[in-house]
């Protein structure tokens, strides 16, 4: 016990080669605390004043539950679609060269750069029943869950592509060649060699897109129509509760979203750690 | 299974990688493709494996034309320089991969695969490592796994692309001997690409010297070493001293030094002399026109041969000489001593293109 204490102290005291650790560490820690840790913990503290019962009562209101269900299902649908098409897009961008490749690659960042309200208005106009695309479709898109999913697909698109792309770029061609020489066909190579290598990256992209979609407000608000129980998502409920000065309700709803984000982040890191521990080259 | 390459050519854009390669490899032979980097040796191997296609020419495996056959049909075991093991699979899974991806009709039973993997693990002496992942093995072990994996599909031929290039000198030497031994056991037609002449000489039955996409010489190691057909091979194989001069009236002339040669006509020439083809004489009296006066600038006494560096007095060219320990002690040479250097064997090539 005593010895281990001594050891850990020796570790702290060890000379640093790069100077300025104390100063930079202190600065970034206080910066992080001010902007992230304190505001986030405020939600916990504020909600904890309600007590379990109060909290459960807040989040079990039918309106809130419907909003959660809507948010989670639309976010899941959108990020699953993004997972498939994002991986495909990354593959096309990395593996083939064709005219306009750079342009498409650049355009992919647009959903990040675009103000979400602009995206929302654009989609709402396009997919309205008399809009350019909405007119052609046999089913209604705007003011439905389909509309929300489309908006979420748009804003979450870059995640999977941007995370899978570098992994594909760094992937040695030799692995696939080895597989081919050993007699595997294209599909077998894809399933046994390529997918296991991009699985972790694709999963992180998916999880990030999911948690991003879960809290998306700007683009959803225009296309959703915000009908209670039908197209009102969780962030919208928070907004409405705030407008009605119902801070207890707003923070309770927010806390659940916050915990969901934490869980997702934890899952991403855990899965990456798992795959690194097993396969990574030391 | 014999391999026959006929007139293979390949180019990338304007760059000719392979230029009309003709080569026959007999069943059970181990042939080394030796050449400097960028000579096209790896491209040739990849064309053979089906990883790339030749623009022209044909490839015959045991008389059957497989020029345009897909990779699978060729049944070639390929060993990559950087192992190319599947990191997400254990060693056992790596070795079994080629068997597992076979179509159901040809796939052995699970038990048969397991037994086959056991055999191969034994063959490459890695029995205790079957359940590990490639990242947990050393470079030498990984390359042995790669070899076992290539052998699992019972290939007709074995292609090795600089298999020991990424390993350190000691492991490389061990693996070379092991590969030689393995080849004696399985007697598989094998083609080894290397830029390391020592490796080629130690392992191969025959050596193919390749340069700029062309074959310069094919022969046994001793043929290639003793009788290089042209100045490139002379230069590339072993250490060699090059002396520039002119060829005139059937003689190679460099300063006062004259030696009769077969070449006729008058042109610039280069004489090649191996370091062990010199006799050193004490510098008393006059230098004959068969020897160069030189000064010893350095003596490397380590090893089974003594290496000397000398500087010619007439034009300050540096010359490398190797003596046996006995010769060296008989002569009792010291640094800065002046001696006469007489080449015992000399080969002169016309200097066109050099």
From TrEMBL, chain A:
Transmembrane segments: 21-46, 66-94, 106-127, 147-164, 206-229, 249-268
Membrane topology qualifier: Multi-pass membrane protein
Top-level taxon in the UniProt lineage: Bacteria
PROSITE patterns xrefs: ABC_TM1 (PS50928)
Keyword Magnesium tagged: no
Residue ranges of domain ABC transmembrane type-1 in the record: 68-268
InterPro entries per the UniProt record, alphabetical: CysT_permease, MetI-like, MetI-like_sf, Sulph_transpt2
CDD domains xrefs: TM_PBP2
Chief subcellular location: membrane
Localization per Swiss-Prot or TrEMBL: Membrane
Keywords from the named record: Membrane, Sulfate transport, Transmembrane, Transmembrane helix, Transport
Family to which this protein belongs: Belongs to the binding-protein-dependent transport system permease family. CysTW subfamily.
Protein's job: Part of the ABC transporter complex CysAWTP (TC 3.A.1.6.1) involved in sulfate/thiosulfate import. Probably responsible for the translocation of the substrate across the membrane. Part of the ABC transporter complex (TC 3.A.1.6.1) involved in sulfate/thiosulfate import.
Summary of subunit composition and partner proteins: The complex is composed of two ATP-binding proteins (CysA), two transmembrane proteins (CysT and CysW) and a solute-binding protein (CysP).
Name under which the protein is recorded: Sulfate transport system permease protein CysT
Taxonomic path: Bacteria, Bacillati, Bacillota, Bacilli, Bacillales
From TrEMBL, chain B:
Domain ABC transporter residue range list: 3-237
InterPro entries associated with the record: AAA+_ATPase, ABC_SmlMolc_Importer, ABC_transporter-like_ATP-bd, ABC_transporter-like_CS, Mo/tungstate-bd_C_term_dom, P-loop_NTPase, Sulph_transpt1, TOBE-like
Protein name, UniProt field: Sulfate/molybdate ABC transporter ATP-binding protein
Assigned keywords, A-Z: ATP-binding, Cell membrane, Membrane, Nucleotide-binding, Sulfate transport, Translocase, Transport
Pfam families membership: ABC_tran, TOBE_3
Coiled-coil regions listed in the entry: none
Record-linked NCBIfam families: 3a0106s01
Keyword Cell membrane attached: yes
Source domain of life: Bacteria
Oxidoreductase listed as a keyword: no
MF GO annotations: ATP binding
């Amino acid at each position: 016990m005593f010895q281990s204490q001594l050891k850990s102290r020796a570790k702290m005291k060890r000379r640093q080669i790069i100077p300025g650790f104390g100063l930079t560490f202190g600065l970034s820690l206080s910066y992080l605390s001010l902007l992230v840790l304190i505001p986030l913990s405020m939600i916990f503290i504020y909600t904890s004043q309600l007590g379990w019962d109060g909290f459960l009562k807040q989040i079990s209101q039918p309106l809130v539950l419907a909003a959660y269900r809507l948010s989670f299902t639309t976010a899941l649908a959108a990020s699953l679609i993004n997972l498939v098409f994002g991986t495909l897009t990354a593959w096309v961008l990395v593996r083939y060269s064709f005219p306009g490749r750079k342009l498409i690659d650049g355009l992919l960042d647009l959903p990040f750069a675009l103000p979400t309200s602009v995206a929302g208005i654009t989609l709402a106009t396009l997919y309205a029943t008399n809009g350019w695309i909405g007119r052609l479709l046999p089913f209604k898109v705007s003011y439905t869950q389909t509309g929300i999913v489309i908006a979420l697909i748009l804003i979450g698109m870059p995640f999977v592509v941007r995370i899978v792309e570098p992994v594909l770029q760094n992937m040695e061609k030799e692995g696939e060649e080895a597989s081919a020489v050993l007699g595997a066909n294209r599909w077998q190579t894809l399933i046994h060699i390529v997918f296991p290598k991009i699985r972790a990256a694709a999963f992180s992209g998916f999880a990030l897109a999911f948690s991003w979609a879960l809290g998306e407000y700007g683009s959803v608000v225009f296309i959703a129509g915000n009908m209670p129980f039908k197209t009102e998502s969780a962030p919208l409920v928070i907004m409405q509760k705030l407008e009605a000065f119902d801070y207890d309700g707003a923070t309770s709803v927010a806390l659940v979203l916050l915990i969901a984000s934490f869980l997702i982040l934890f899952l991403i890191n855990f899965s990456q750690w798992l795959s690194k521990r097993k396969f990574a080259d030391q | 299974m014999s391999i026959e390459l006929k007139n293979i050519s390949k180019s990338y854009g304007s760059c000719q990688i392979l230029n009309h390669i003709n080569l026959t490899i007999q069943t059970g032979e181990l042939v080394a493709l030796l050449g400097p980097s960028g000579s096209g040796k790896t491209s040739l191997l990849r064309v053979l494996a089906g990883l790339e296609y030749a623009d022209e020419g044909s490839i015959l495996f045991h008389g059957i034309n497989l020029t345009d056959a897909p990779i699978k049909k060729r049944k070639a075991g390929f060993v990559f320089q950087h192992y190319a093991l599947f990191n997400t699979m254990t060693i056992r899974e790596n070795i079994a991969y080629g068997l597992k991806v076979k179509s159901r009709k040809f796939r052995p039973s699970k038990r048969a695969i397991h037994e086959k993997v056991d055999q191969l693990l034994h063959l490459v002496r890695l029995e205790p490592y079957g359940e590990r992942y490639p990242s947990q093995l050393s470079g030498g072990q990984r390359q042995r796994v790669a070899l076992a994996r290539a052998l699992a599909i019972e290939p007709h031929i074995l292609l090795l692309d600089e298999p020991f290039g990424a390993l350190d000198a000691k492991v490389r030497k061990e693996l070379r001997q092991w590969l030689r031994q393995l080849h004696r056991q399985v007697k598989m037609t094998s083609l080894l690409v290397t830029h390391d002449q020592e490796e080629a000489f130690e392992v191969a039955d025959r050596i193919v010297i390749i340069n700029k996409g062309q074959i310069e010489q094919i022969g046994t190691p001793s043929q290639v070493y003793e009788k290089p057909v042209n100045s490139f091979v002379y230069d590339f194989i072993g250490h060699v001293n090059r002396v520039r001069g002119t060829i005139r009236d059937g003689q190679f002339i460099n300063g006062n030094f004259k030696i009769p040669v077969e070449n006729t006509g008058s042109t610039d020439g280069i004489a090649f002399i191996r370091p062990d083809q010199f006799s050193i004489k004490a510098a008393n009296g006059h230098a004959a026109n068969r020897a160069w006066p030189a000064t010893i600038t350095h003596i490397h006494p380590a090893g089974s041969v003594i290496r000397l560096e000398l500087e010619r007095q007439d034009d300050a060219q540096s010359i490398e000489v190797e003596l046996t320990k006995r010769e060296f002690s008989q002569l009792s040479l010291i640094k800065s001593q002046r001696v006469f250097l007489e080449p015992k064997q000399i080969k002169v090539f016309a200097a066109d293109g050099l």
